[in-house]
Amino acid sequence: MITIFDNVIIGQYVPRESFIHRMDPRAKIIAIFIFIVFLFISRHPVVLMLAAILTGVTFLLANIPFRYYIKGMHFIAIIILLTFLLHLFMTNDGRVLLDLSWITIYSGGVIEGSLIALRLFLLVLMASLLTLSTMPMDLTDGLERLMKPLAAMGVPTHELALMMSIALRFIPTLLEETSKIINAQMARGANFSKGSLWTRLKALIPILVPLFIQSFKRAEDLATAMEARGYNGSKGRTKFRRLQWKRNDTIAIGVLLIFALITVIFRVYT
Amino acid sequence: MPNEISVCNLSFRYQDSTPYVLKDISLTVKKGEWLTILGPNGSGKSTLAKFFNALLIPLTGEVVSCGKNTVDSAEWSSIRRDVSMVFQNPDNQLVAPTVEDDVAFGLESAGIPYDEMHQRVKDCIQRLGLEGFEKTEPHNLSGGQKQRVALAGALALKPKVIVLDEATSMLDPQGRNEVLTIVRKLNKEDGVTIIAITHDVNEAIASDRVIVLNDGSIVYEGIPRELLANREILRANNLSSPFIVDVARELRKYQILIDENVLTHEELVNAICSYKRII
Ligand SMILES: Nc1ncnc2c1ncn2[C@@H]1O[C@H](COP(=O)(O)OP(=O)(O)O)[C@@H](O)[C@H]1O
Ligand SMILES: [Mg+2]
Q: Which of A75, B68, B210, B260 places its Cα 20 to 30 Å from the Cα of B223?
């Protein structure tokens, strides 16, 4: 039995008693939003250094070992590397460092590539911090409250949050089921790694069809179960979870706002 | 005893072009009673169950649940609070990503205030022996545990009636026992009315009354003991007689003349022991 999909989403949360863990999910989401936006405003070394320090401090505060960050990063690492190489090869600035007949590498390329790579790395680290230190449910909740002003504009915020929460609930179940179906088909001699692309795509059909049929059945059952439990939309609904904005949250946002201000100053005056 | 649910001349088909799934059903469920509805697959059990809590609304006939006519759409929320339901597939009825969130789901819908909601969630999780699993994700639970979560969610609404639609049919024997033990306790200690739908004759033994449904009609109504002794009715409705009854019958064939009415393991053992003593 292969279990192909272990700990895809839920396995990410690392429980700890830390400053970052205790923060209100809304504060975390806002803070990271500010960080990501302003990280790309100025490319001054001082700004990047500040961003690195900020990330470092957050990392230390969260008290989550680095290996947890690496676990989900293989894919991202490839992207960062590709971006680096792209900039390395495509920039024609500064001194010539290496001159091969088919390619020339300039010092500007190295600098540009490193800057981008560093920014992406900081961004990914911060984003991982959010998912590693916040339970998915709290994240959903935080997003729902933050989107609330949009409800007045007709955005179905409650439904979106419910969808997210149902997705969180069922993604592991669906992955488990996919594993099971793949194993069952392989036991019957199906082969997913041989033949032309077309053959391999065709081999996926016996997986997708049962999966879809099961999912529709599931959706129908779930709708009935929700109705039986009195689900009636957001009208008159109370919440099991309550978010609490504390002083630390304000402080964290304050720090991020100062960072934002500095980036803007460097952008304007250099 | 007052009636908790009464169904009167209910007929139903899903579409005008399809045959009737329920045909002129009339029945009552008394307060505090444990009623078993037996019937082969496709006999209309689940369809009937959906009328009890206004998931389906009668066009022909009438259903009154806890004093409220289910035609009245203003009463649906309150009917669904009074009549809770646990379904067959443990994987398809838990909505939320953690146990406690799921138990709270119905309470959130009912608009129960924060403090009371937390108290009730805590109580129900404890009642069903799920302490320590509050933050667990459903996909990490066993089938029996999932059904207990569903039962906790149903119980949290303080229902007068709990309908179990083949709630144990996908469980292993241990999971089945876990769930049935709790259901028995809710019925005996808390006086919750139980309507248990099943195609397993063994589950009927402990109940107060049995109704057999076949092809949309009620074909038998009586106490479990009489039904289980009645081979003709069982056979006519595709129901296999309980293992213990078969054993007793075979024993009698070999002139080991033990009591004809044994139904449970214990009774059979006692019957055989006392038979030995007579010899
Ligand atoms: N949503 C539906 N739409 C159309 N037909 C249905 C639906 N649900 C059930 N049926 C049909 O109604 C009949 C009774 O089904 P059901 O009440 O689920 O029986 P049981 O629970 O006893 O197995 C079956 O023939 C089934 O095909
Ligand atoms: Mg059914």
A: B68
B120-132 residues labelled b (16+ CB within 10 A) or e (exposed): bbeebbebbebee
Radius of gyration of chain A (CA): 24
Alpha-carbon distance of A202 to A3, in angstroms, equals 22
Say which residues have a Cβ less than 8 Å from residue B170's Cβ, sequence separation at least 6.
B88, B89, B90, B143
Local confidence band at B1 (pLDDT 50, 70, 90 cut-offs): low
Which of A2, A11, A1 minimizes the C-alpha distance to A172?
A: A11
B3-238 CATH? 3.40.50.300
Beta bridge mates, B60:
B11
* Distances from the Cα of B228 to the Cα of B27, B181, B209, B221, angstroms: 21, 21, 12, 12
Point out the least confidently predicted range of A169-183, B5-19, B140-154: A169-183
Closest CA to A27 of A160, A145, A149, A170: A145
Supply the DSSP symbol for B69. Answer: E
A240, A242, A244: which to substitute to probe chain B, counting the most B Cβ within 10 Å? A240
Cβ(B37)–Cβ(B220) below 8 Å: no
**B8 C-alpha vs ligand 1 centroid, how far in Å?**
20
**Residues lining ligand 1, judged by CB closer than 6 Å?**
B 14, 21, 39, 41-47
Is any Cβ of chain B less than 8 angstroms from the Cβ of A3? Answer: no
Report residue A269 as tokens: 């005056």
Contact B97 A222 (CB under 8 A): no
**A84-141 pLDDT tens trace:** 988 888 888 888 888 877 778 888 888 888 988 999 999 989 988 998 999 888 888 9
Q: Which residues surround ligand 2, an ion (CB under 5 A)?
A: B 46
Query: Model-level pTM greater than 0.90?
Result: no
HSE-CB at B25 with a 13 A cutoff on CA atoms is 37
Least confident of A38-42, A257-261, B181-185: A38-42
| Helices then strands, each counted (H, E), chain A | 10, 2
